[in-house]
Write a structure and sequence with these properties.
alpha+beta; elongated
Length: 281
Amino acid sequence: MRISRYWWMLIGATASGLLAAYVALVYVSKEPAPLEAATAPAQSIVVAARDLPAGSIIQREDVETVAWPGSAVPEGFSRQAGEVVGRGVIMEVKKNEPLLQSKLADKDAGGGLPITIPEGMRAVSVEVDKVIGVAGFVLPGTRVDVLATVMPGNNRTLTTTRIILQNIRALAADQKYQEDTEGKPQYVTVVTLLVTPQQAEAVTLASTEGKIQLALRNTLDLKDVDTRGLRITSLVSGAVGSSHQAKSSSRPARPVHPERVIESYEGGSRTLLKFGTGGGR
């Protein structure tokens, strides 16, 4: 009787194991059902086939249509080339970049510089030489500070240089041909700046009554600085601080003692002798 129970138990265990193995085999070998697509189908979108500078008119060969995967398409995109061909580019577009409505002018607006000027702003052009134009590094998209040097009346000691505009964007930098006072040909660089109407007045007045200079700045440096300007007398007296001193403005200023300057000539040579208030040389 005991042997019979043992065999029945062994047969039952064997059958259970075989059944479990069969179920596992069926589960593993069963071909999984295809997953539903988690993303939306690709959409047709118009991109630039080459770099497009601001002010240019888009031609058919300038664009191409590509498949943009997923649903995360940029806002304001175009589906067909006909939606963008013939329109002006307000902001520079790089190759393979989507042509968004925010970077394009209206169909009838045309191209050129006018369409790149935001509403309420003005474009002012100034003639500069290689020095004023920072040796050719003032290019479209760069930012500059505008310095003005003015001499009130005929008193040269009152000549002052001061930053009148800060963080101004350059729209264009072109060269034009003209003749100098002797009739010789020369090329003059014209830099066009994007300014407000009030800033346009300041640039025009400074270039008319004095001389302007452009100071190139880091495009990521958006902080304005507060300066009082510099007179020519400060250059003679040595009151111009170094860049290290300018950063350490929190330190107490050292007292400035008046000096006496004696000018003498010997054998055609000019000598300046400076004496402090204490009588030391």
